[in-house]
Predict the structure.
Amino acid sequence: MFQAPFSFGILKRAIDQGLVSINLHNIRDYTHDKHRTVDDYPYSGGPGMVLKPEPIFEAVESVTSGISAVEKGGKLPIILLTPQGRLFSQEIARDLSGYDHLILICGRYEGVDERVRQHLVTDEISIGDYVLTGGEFPAMVVVDSVVRLLPGVLGSDASSLDESHSDGLLEYPQYTRPEVYKGWEVPEILLSGNHAKIAGWRREQVIRRTLERRPDLLEKTTLNQQERQLVEQLGSALKQTNTIKESSL
Ligand code: SAM
């Protein structure tokens, strides 16, 4: 499952350049029976199977034995991907990008034995309020978002600074050539070459977009006085438009 996403684009380049190293471990390799059993029935019944604790503990112990004692002293995140974890965000990705090592544990079936959560993992992450069949896609989401924040991974380090969620807001709209497509024009200001005006327009767009699509994000962001005024102006204009729309329904 991991082969394709890790073998092209920015992730592949980062791996090839030695900026990150991703090691996959199959918990079946940490079983001791003929059938390489990793799951069993849940105690006291219920649907599906549960991942046994022993192979997961052994896999993690084997991986951590190669990591320095200093880091193991509480600073090595051992993350369980689970729909019950804290909701993943750009802020968490940024935080995780500061560690030398991360261990991600992917569940399957009905999930993992509770003792893994209680006595092995240091963090639990969910990528959204929905349930997937396994932790592999969530792990890929975490890896992708963390790796692109590592120094040197993106072509220009500035490209991760302007992006949506990097400062808590959504990014401004982007245009490329042609200047006119099917009669739809690129905003004139972007062709003006006036960098100060373009920066002002972009900041206004950032605020407008966030207000229209994710007003909850604005509440958590620190804005300067001019920006707060803009939010008030745009907010009342937006309310008026919505009232007109509602009354014409
Ligand atoms: N029975 C579990 C529950 O209700 O919480 C769900 C198990 S789910 C079918 C199987 C595995 O997929 C989980 O152990 C977890 O690793 C992964 N998974 C599913 N949804 C996820 C999500 N939203 N975020 C992170 N991991 C998820």
